[in-house]
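Lab notebook, bench 4. We co-purified these components, and the gel suggests they stay together. Before we commit to crystallization screens, I want a quick structural picture of the whole thing.
Request: model the full complex, all chains together.
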Amino acid sequence: DGGITQSPKYLFRKEGQNVTLSCEQNLNHDAMYWYRQDPGQGLRLIYYSQIVNDFQKGDIAEGYSVSREKKESFPLTVTSAQKNPTAFYLCASSRGRGIYSNQPQHFGDGTRLSIL
Amino acid sequence: DQQVKQNSPSLSVQEGRISILNCDYTNSMFDYFLWYKKYPAEGPTFLISISSIKDKNEDGRFTVFLNKSAKHLSLHIVPSQPGDSAVYFCAASWTTDSWGKLQFGAGTQVVVTP
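Here is the predicted assembly.
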């Protein structure tokens, strides 16, 4: 079955550490996205990518970094510069832009990051 | 500045009755709207969408209505079932942006009671 796999499901970070969240998709989607969800809030866009080796900042990119070396993979690094990293992180993918821009995004099951 | 708003954080409905969820938006450039359903500790699941060239779209028990002049959309679930208990997110995008970015509302928690 095609889908989006996020790992790990739960992650704990010590203050001052960088951590990387994994996101892999086998849907052959061009576009991938990272969102953050906090309690009582909607999803907020961190970074997005429409094509390999290209990505753009979303609404809350400060303290985060990404890479897109392969079409299937879009890892997110939460750096020590992110002052409030405790949240639920969701990765999504879609077919992409142009004639496919009216296509829904499909989500993984998320990673919950907590600070020790 | 939140461009998509769901002003009701929660909704309780009896099994078999209609659930009506509301969503308002401020950006007149939005032309594609979606509803997602989310269970705890899981990712959102796509439910239904509507393009701005339509005012209604149906899929089984789910119907989405769009009122462009009022910048308002709603999701009707008929009949409501216990498995519909979840958080529902409204989302919007504009195709001229062409990046497929979505703006999400804060969500409405639906509880379907027996």
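The two ends of chain A are 35 Å apart (CA to CA). Worth comparing against the SEC data before the next meeting. Chain A touches chain B through 34 residues (CB under 8 Å).
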